[in-house]
Amino acid sequence: MVDRTDPLPVTRQCTLLDLPRSTFYHVPKPVSDAELALMALIDRCHLKHPFYGSRRIRDWLEDRGHRVNRKKVRRLMRTMGLATLYPKRNLSLANQAHKVYPYLLRDLVIDRPNQVWATDVTYIPMARGFVYLVAIMDWHSRKVLSWRVSNTLDANFCVEALEEALETHGVPEIFNTDQGSQFTSEDFTGTLKRHGIRISMDGKGRWVDNVFVERLWRSVKYEEVYLKAYENIAAARVSLGRYFAFYNTERRHQSLDRRTPDSVYYESAAKLAA
């Protein structure tokens, strides 16, 4: 995070953080209540139809009585981080200057915890405003290893979530992300490299390459976010914390033979250690 009180010049701090100075100095305009309502609808549409672009979302809104032009839909999608349209919902725009890594999971048998971790970012509406949520998941057990919310769409909160997961759960063999700038940044990939983790990235336009995190977002939103109206970011953190505790320890998954993510993760780890 850029610190104005640090003796290191702001320009140099931005360079080290791979943050454009224009982003640091930019003061965003407040989003109106009407636009927040539209963004909430766009989020629901995108969750249900991740292959919809701005044209079809505009039509979807119109069918529900909201007449809005395509230009406005595109602008709101960019604000939400949904600027990359079909066929992938992508909350983080790719930075062409960053290295993109190959996708390593195709035809890979994933049969143990900490073999593959995956991550993604999603938009979370609140009563007034919105935040972004990042979560890191163990692919084998579906356990949410760590998560963070932020009111800015940068790499910092993603790196914080990664560092917490590594400190708490050890080191995975492979880490899979999309090609968003948060995950291709030097801060993020450098952390993975320092721990000897192989980096895998989804193929461009292939949301199915990270399908389990996409399913997590569906559960989080329909079972938690859409039922609440968080007053502020602190309330969002508290409520999401309760939900993820429930998700890991109580919510049984049909794909896990009706077991919870925690039971699969820890029991499998114990068998490997025996």
Write structural notes for this entry.
There is one protein chain. With 274 residues, this protein is of the alpha/beta class. The chain folds into two domains: 10-80, no CATH class; 116-273, Ribonuclease H-like superfamily/Ribonuclease H (Nucleotidyltransferase, domain 5), CATH 3.30.420.10. It is built from eleven helices and five strands. It has helices at residues 10-16, 21-25, 33-48, 54-63, 70-80, 156-169, 181-184, 186-194, 211-223, 233-249, 261-273; strands spanning 116-125, 130-138, 144-150, 174-177, 198-201. Strands 3-2-1-4-5 form a five-stranded mixed β-sheet, sandwiched between helices. Helix 3 crosses helix 5 (70-80). The longest helix has 17 residues, at 233-249. It is globular and about 60 Å long. The relative contact order is 0.13.
CATH-assigned fold name of the largest domain: Nucleotidyltransferase, domain 5
Low-confidence stretches: 83-90
Helix proportion: 40-55%
How would you sum up the global shape?
globular
How many H/I helices?
11
Distance between the termini: 43 Å
Tell how many strands the DSSP assignment holds.
5
Strand content is: 5-15%
- The ordered H/E elements are HHHHHEEEHEHHEHHH
- Please compute the radius of gyration using only Cα atoms: 19 Å
What is the CATH C level class of the largest domain, in words? Alpha Beta
